[in-house]
Amino acid sequence: LVYAERCLLSVQDAASREAGPLVCNMCLRPLGGAVMQLTMLLKAAEERTRRKVMVSPADALLLRSCPGARRPPCRCPESCEEAFCSEECREAAAAHHAHLCLGGEAGDHVEPALENFCQHAAESGLPHFCLAAMLFARMVAAVCERSRPPGPGALEGAFAEFERVPWSSAAGSAEGIEERRRVVEEAVPLLSDLFVTGETIQKFPAGNTDGLFNADLLDGVLGMLDRCVVDVEFENPHDAELRALADGSQAAAAPQAEEPAEPRKKLKRRKQAASGGEGPPEPGKKRRTQSGATPGVSSLSEDLVATARAAAAHVESAAVVAPPPPQSDRMLPPIRGTALVRGVALSNHSCDPNVLVEWTGSAEIAVRARRAIAEGEEVLMSYLGADVDGMSLEQRRERLRDGWGFTCACRRCQAEAVGEVSATPSVGNAPADVSSGDRSVPVEKAHDVTSAEAGMTRGRRPRRGRSS
């Protein structure tokens, strides 16, 4: 392990959210245990197919024996739809979530204003507008808590490290730049309507909100997110529990209560006998065991398993464009979203990376070495994910030019280009292991992302569903 890091911002994909998995609003960790996750998936399937999904009593008993089956999530105190995996996450999100919460009295203002902004953003092609709204909510919270005047320094801490190239400037033509700028300018008053209320306006100097809600700042934030945001995808950790119950290979263990003393057992039996309590089971009715399961039933019914797998497969087919997902025995789909991760955003690319980036079951990454890394050597990741190992030189360069706007000249690309001199233009004297092009980093300015000073922003979006 080179380092582990939690995301600065993260949001669940709309398709993943509609499919049912309930996740923590702060860290994307699945909530409520296997039973809640399966229940939400089946409920979404019912709404989609208009067919009632029946869960037999025997299946219900087995599901209740899953570890953490009754573990409730931490709900928003204003009773909105958002939930959190722990008090820690709820407290960490409290300041900015208060400005996006759809519950309580403020929800009457927030809900229509948020809908207007999101509708405009979706129709106009604004990238990562949900993350942008979350980031502006944090800036508004900072103004309200510390009465700090907004302005050029509105992005604080780690957010200030990222390169803010205006989103509009990345358009391919003058007409495109003008159109994007128009879209941004139209979004500013909608964003202002969302966050500027009778309460928050008092925190802005002289009631002037132009320092925070202006086209230049929003354009820069969108450009920064478009370059630096990465896709999140990790397996639902409760899927393994359900698959074990599906094939009967592992019975889920119920929480073991403390064993009562023998005299108390005898006393309980005497009381039951005296009061006409529990006796032999009725004909045709099976007695429950101490674990809550029904004797003779060790796996979930085929109907329930098939329904869950079909629902999970539908989510996969809707999320993956190409190639089509392979046949899977998943009963819960992976969790998907987008996130801003400091270490990834500040890392340079190489087609022969020395690290892999893995998701750890929440919006947290583990960066692991692919090989020995010398002291002082730059930590390099692949923007193309694990696919990079099987791609040709031209395939890699085409993907990087289209997605990130530079021609790679890392050590691997230079070595492979030697045999393709006639087909590939010379890359000149580009430094080894550093990508060159319109966003190249001189070797003397490249930094290890674990150091106090990070290199310039490089990342944009590794391919979904792969380790980088």
Q: How many alpha or pi helices?
A: 14
How far is the first residue's CA from the last residue's CA?
Answer: 14 Å
Strand content: 5-15%
Low-confidence region ranges: 251-296, 421-468
The main β sheet shows up as: 3 strands, antiparallel
Structural class: mainly alpha
Describe the structure.
Mean pLDDT is 78; it is low at 251-296 and 421-468. 38% of the residues lie in helices and 8% in strands. The protein has helices at 14-18, 33-49, 57-64, 87-97, 107-124, 129-146, 174-195, 215-228, 239-247, 262-274, 302-319, 342-345, 393-404, 411-417; strands at 3-6, 9-12, 74-75, 83-84, 230-234, 335-340, 348-349, 355-359, 364-369, 380-381. It has 468 residues and is mainly alpha-helical. The protein is built from 14 helices and ten strands. The two termini are 14 Å apart. It is globular, with a radius of gyration of 27 Å. The longest helix is centred in the middle third of the chain and has 22 residues, at 174-195. Strands 1-9-8 form a three-stranded antiparallel β-sheet. A three-stranded antiparallel β-sheet has the order 2-6-5. Strands 3-4 form a two-stranded antiparallel sheet.
How do the helices and strands line up, and which of them pair or pack?
Blueprint: E1 3-6, E2 9-12, H1 14-18, H2 33-49, H3 57-64, E3 74-75, E4 83-84, H4 87-97, H5 107-124, H6 129-146, H7 174-195, H8 215-228, E5 230-234, H9 239-247, H10 262-274, H11 302-319, E6 335-340, H12 342-345, E7 348-349, E8 355-359, E9 364-369, E10 380-381, H13 393-404, H14 411-417
